[in-house]
Amino acid sequence: MIDMNATPTMDSVSHLPVWLLNSLRDPETKELLKFSENRLTGSGGRVYPIVDGVPSLVYPPTLGALDEKMNRLYRWLAPFYDLNERFFGRIFAGQDMLEGRSSIVDLLHLSHGIRLLEISPGPGVFQKLLRSAIGDNGELVSVDLSLPMLRQCQSIQHTTRALLVHANGAYLPFADETFDALFHFGGVNLFSEPERAVDEFVRVVKHGGIVAYGDEGFAEGYPESWRKKALSRMNPGFLRKRPSVPARLSSVVEHVVYGGLGYLVVGRRV
Question: Which CATH number fits the domain that encloses residue 231?
Fold first, then answer.
């Protein structure tokens, strides 16, 4: 069962904009939710709490093995994730993670004023860059399966103004075609259902909208070296098969990022 790592509080979702409340759906059935002061109820009677002001719409109630494993890891890693990634990125990957993140966001070609969904923000390492890309008049919604990671995002909300939702990236709690663009980087290779997740990424984006996702992965021809061996042992995601590119994406470009240590797929929803 999901360890929420918190007790449901008497929070409400009144701080969320009307457009987002109207687009929230039961992640199991994709039907409308009923709202009360401290919970949301699906059409089948399943209750979803509000935890620390964040709607918690996680499905299924029993996570897949990989999702559960990563959730346990991120529970204790959350406060140190950014520092850990930057340190090991420099030492083991030979990369400046801040520069790498900025380069990735530049590849998205986002516009001011759009509604952007971010999947797996971690502690919010991309959020300031994403906010800059969509402008003050844009809407940024960030979804993560880890509540501790979302708490880290809450600590920087004064600058990112990200709207947070606790949910599984493979069972997104949103209506079809809610967002103008979607961004995910880091994690999909190790999702329990990566193919389903990428299909969900496409489903919630409007026709013609941007869908961008990526993860660790050695570029073709990446040299055999101590670095490759070390990274493969530290993160099995490097060796996992990448999700297939959905047929509902057009104008697809696959970018090599982080000096050949990652990939980013960018396409348009058909």
Answer: 3.40.50.150
